[in-house]
Amino acid sequence: MSEKIIIFDTTLRDGEQAPGASLNVFEKVEIAKQLERLNVDVIEAGFPVSSQGQFEAVQRIADSVNAIITGLARTIDGDIDACHKSLKGAERSRIHTFIGTSDIHINGKFESARYGKSLPEKQATILKMATDAVQYAKTFTDDVEFSAEDAGRTDIGYLCEIIEAVIDAGATTVNIPDTTGYTMPEEFGAKIAELKSRVRNIDQAVISVHCHNDLGLAVANSLFAVANGARQVECTINGIGERAGNASMEEFVMSLNVRSNFWNFHTDINTKEIYNASRMVSGFTGMLVQPNKAIVGENAFAHESGIHQDGMLKNRDTYEIMTPESVGIVNNKIVLGRHSGRHGLSSRLKALGYEISDEKMGNIYERFVFLADKKKEIFDEDLRVLMGDEAKSEIGFYTLDYLHVNLGTTTIATATVRIKTEEKMHEESATGDGPVDACFRAINRAINFQEMAKLEHYQVRSVTAGKGAQGEVTVRIKIQDSAYSGKGVSTDTIRASAKAYLQALNHYESLKNMENVFEEITETV
Ligand code: KIV
Ligand code: ZN
Description:
CATH class of the largest domain: Alpha Beta
Number of helices: 16
Strand order of the largest sheet: 2-3-4-5-6-7-8-9
Number of strands: 16
CATH superfamily of the largest domain: Aldolase class I
CATH topology of the largest domain: TIM Barrel
Largest sheet: 8 strands, parallel, barrel
Mean pLDDT: 90
Bound molecules: 3-methyl-2-oxobutanoic acid, zinc ion
Radius of gyration: 25 Å
Number of domains: 3
């Protein structure tokens, strides 16, 4: 009998920590609903104490999504309080608390003598902080997870000691993160096996793993961990996360699924929802999926060479180890157009994973008709793009009211923009090194970002098929050491660029505003 592996999705917490991937509350709730359709067991919805936006998103997800919902907390009472408060509405909730356990983390983060003078003294303090935090979290819920951050580089003797202590304190899941993606699969597997054999009470908790992908081994390490006793795997959609990201959910799940003749494990994931989830996360975060990405990349099921195409026509098994349909990629022939009604649109959106309230549908239908006027045939990709764009327009400090660009082979590109804010219209012109540069400079001038916003990344691609294909522009800007991304879509790429840039600025404004009110909230938890 194959054993079940619990899937703990951390797209909304670790995934969102990817540079520039910040999501607004509406987007987080939409993604959480898609994770529910995927049948994920545990959803890590955020780090509630870290900002008001995080707190609110965890709260909204806890209120509306049916899975175990968890939030992250340091081993600090205030973090655990915030976590508990944000999770109150959940039918099933978990508090996830963590602390660094490797010598490098201990010496780096707990340098102060108040944690102890020597390494053993500091280790004793950390063990006490961990057990106190687990005991405190237990006063709110039975389901408590403890993570030994940087376990991959933690001394095995100390790791066994702290894991045993937190289980005695009541932890029901013990997570062993390879925080820096440093370990090799056999080495990581051996670490799990050693914990299993050395920790006296290990049978009283589920062993979980959380692997980062710095050496491209996150999925391999997770598989080796499972082979050696782990029964929960933490992962993200498209593998997004800190630095090189986390173990990719779709790769891990499909490895167990496709090679069920090799692994005696299964998950409860509804694999047919994988592609919808991947596209939604990519659309909302602005993080493009590389074309050759396993399972969900554009080329994952494309057969280019004549020999391969010939083989495929004779028998798909020749070059395909799974079908595109098994992960929800359907060769959809349904094309909508300007005469499609609301009902046709909403049922297509539903099939793509978007549940739209009647109240929102009016606006979306209006945008759909506007697009259909420009572009005769509307494909699934157009709808996904429209939904991504719609979600971002939820945060609208700045909206583009007017854009005019002058360019030619012998003239200097000049842009004039008019930007609407709640108080007034801001109009400015600027010249630049090409129309897009001129446009960004004019925006900076109009709303006073000249000194602050630095463009870090700019990408344009055609996202949809057919005549009048839409151009999608992704930008990432840096303001005061933090990155903010934005995406804009239009049949006109300069307009798409202006929208993307404004969206990144909107992200900055919304997060800045949330930080301001957050202090008041944390005082009351
Ligand atoms: O990578 C890591 O160690 C983490 C923990 C907080 C689980 O994300
Ligand atoms: Zn992590």
